[in-house]
Design brief:
ten-stranded mixed β-sheet, single chain, 30% strand, 19% helix, alpha/beta, eleven-stranded mixed β-sheet
């Protein structure tokens, strides 16, 4: 029978954090699992996880971070976790019921509190199990100057102490407030300083991103010297940062770690119209974040109890969407060949756009559309959305993952380019790239690219999408100027994926200027997006053929 004791654990500044310890049956000492949680007792999933670990012979420390669920002090997201996390682990290491072997566990923010201290651990900490988190917060917030408004705004609404029943409606209103900088006061009656700082700092080179906790976090991965179990999701917004952090680990640490990428969203659910994914190794648990317990128990038994481990250690284990199989990869990115398909304008009944051709240098052409920020194209099957995972947001937010797409020509502000059928199955493994020659009559605007598989039966599913503004085109860290009417080349590197294209499928490229609410609506005006209150209509042109090398580049897997 599990025995639970409560503690108020002191931090170095005197604040005491509410902590429960779940003791297994029998006599200790025991290997110990530490979970640090920001979401309070209202979310019982971590207590359930603690009970399951305890049932398998682990003492479990479940601590609520500063300013939450009875812990003293003020909760400022991310600020105090480096010092508080270290203090908590030293407290655990000094307890007589701990047998000298500590592992840490958690997803999302619970993963952050682990990675944030992974370079300053007590010797008793032997391993970490981290789900869906990466340390580069700027890359989480922004993509080429475009803010992930669904993700960050819904998280702000969720964590502001408002009436939970009003979440969905407040989220919807929050997305539409102009200027967005006033969203907090207009909806909550108070300012949210941390949120205002994020939406006011688009430049990567600014002081906000280069002082305090943010640059400090980026130094952590190369110093990690314990094995990690990293569990990522193809449809989780943190995945590129997780891969980046994995690549930054010392070679010895990578060789003793395991990185597994599953067909899941942020909470470890399987999203989209192709779900459930076969052979995924997932059990269908609810809440889905408890799926991590199954993976973690095997790893902790191996790392903390010395038991055999029947999975591959070292390298990366990636689930292949559209195939239901796993690819064992030595490293990321894997070895691939680049397959280019060039845009060529062609008049087609029912939609504007053209074809994707293997031949470069087709006759020069151009095709245009009009982008109205007051009638933006909406995301359908997005890469980095979050709000839909919360039941109270149901109906207010699009779903992540592969979703059946509308037919070409369903909107006048979307251009479509379609390839010939692929003669055989083709495995995409890596980052799809899109290069476009574009022009606009706006001084700043946005362009989107979505890659879609169109199957032989006519159904189509999104693979990946991305966006760029002209001000931050080609990964610029600070705002660039743009002369209206000038043709410039923009490059979009889409998020990583392993995806098998079926034989006789076609690839489809959709181009537009909005993917709302995954990203903020670009107003087609210059300046800080969060302070803009006015919009204007923009006329956008894509150039291809001749001297214009507009193309997509597909990383095709090779052994």
């Amino acid at each position: 029978m599990i025995n639970i004791k409560e503690y108020m654990v002191p931090m170095r500044d005197g604040a005491k954090l509410y902590t429960r310890v779940f003791f297994p049956a029998g006599e200790g000492p025991w290997p110990t699992v530490v979970i640090r949680d920001p979401y309070g007792k209202a979310n019982p999933a971590m207590a359930t996880a603690a009970e399951e670990f305890s049932d398998h012979g682990y003492a479990v420390v479940l601590q609520h971070v500063r300013g939450t669920a009875g812990s003293e002090g003020e909760w400022v997201p991310h600020k105090n976790e480096r010092q508080d996390g270290v203090d908590a682990l030293h407290w655990v290491a000094a307890q007589p019921w701990m047998d000298g072997n500590i592992g840490t566990f958690g997803i999302s923010y619970r993963g952050y509190v682990q990675l944030a201290i992974a370079d300053q651990l007590p010797a008793e900490v032997k391993t970490m199990v981290i789900g869906n988190f990466g340390l580069d917060r700027y890359k989480q917030m922004y993509q080429d100057g475009m803010f992930r408004i669904d993700l960050i705004t819904s998280w702000a609404v969720r964590n502001c102490g408002i009436n939970p029943e009003a979440m969905g409606e407040l989220y919807k209103k929050a997305l539409g407030v102009r200027p967005h900088i006033n969203m907090d006061k207009e909806l909550y009656g108070v300012e949210l300083p941390w949120y205002r700082e994020i939406i006011s700092n688009v430049n990567r080179t600014g002081e906000f991103w280069n002082e305090g906790i943010w640059p400090e976090l980026l130094t952590v991965p190369p110093k990690v010297d314990i094995p990690l179990l990293l569990l990522g999701g193809w449809f989780d917004y943190y995945l590129p940062m997780m891969i980046e952090n994995y690549q930054q680990l010392p070679e010895k640490t990578r060789a003793s770690s395991r990185f597994q990428i599953l067909p899941v969203a942020h909470n470890f659910s399987m999203p989209g119209d192709l779900a459930p994914f076969p052979n995924s190794g997932l059990t269908g648990r609810v809440p889905e974040e408890l799926e991590l317990v199954n993976f973690a128990l095997e790893w902790f038994d191996y790392q903390l109890k010395g038991q055999p481990y029947n999975r591959v250690v070292g390298g990366l284990d990636a689930y292949v969407i559209g195939d239901g199989e796993w690819e064992q990869l030595e490293a990321w990115p894997p070895k691939t060949g680049a397959k280019r398909l060039y845009l060529s304008v062609e008049t087609r009944a029912g939609y504007k756009g053209g074809v994707l051709s293997a031949q470069a240098g087709e006759p020069a052409g151009a095709v245009s559309y009009t982008y109205d920020p007051d009638d933006p194209f909406s995301a359908k099957g997005a890469d980095t959305v979050f709000a839909y995972l919360q039941p109270l947001y149901a109906g207010y937010s699009p779903m992540a993952g592969p979703v059946q797409q509308d037919q070409p020509g369903s909107r006048a502000d979307v251009l479509t380019f379609l390839s010939e059928p692929f003669p055989a199955e083709t495995l995409i493994a890596g980052n799809i790239k899109v290069r476009l020659d574009v022009a606009s009559d706006a001084e700043d605007t946005a362009f989107t690219a979505k890659i879609i598989e169109v199957r032989a039966d006519g159904t189509s599913y999104n693979i990946r999408n991305s966006i760029t503004s002209l001000a931050y085109r080609n990964g610029a860290l600070t705002s660039q100027s743009y002369q209206t009417g000038t043709v410039v080349n923009i490059g979009l590197e889409l998020r990583p994926i392993t995806w098998k294209i079926q034989a006789h499928s076609r690839l489809r490229l959709d181009i537009s200027s909005a993917n709302f609410p995954e990203y903020n609506i670009h107003s087609n005006t210059t300046g800080l997006w969060a302070e803009q209150s006015q919009t204007k209509i923009a006329h956008q042109t894509i150039y291809c053929g001749g001297a214009h090398e507009s193309y997509i580049e597909i990383p095709v897997r090779r052994d």
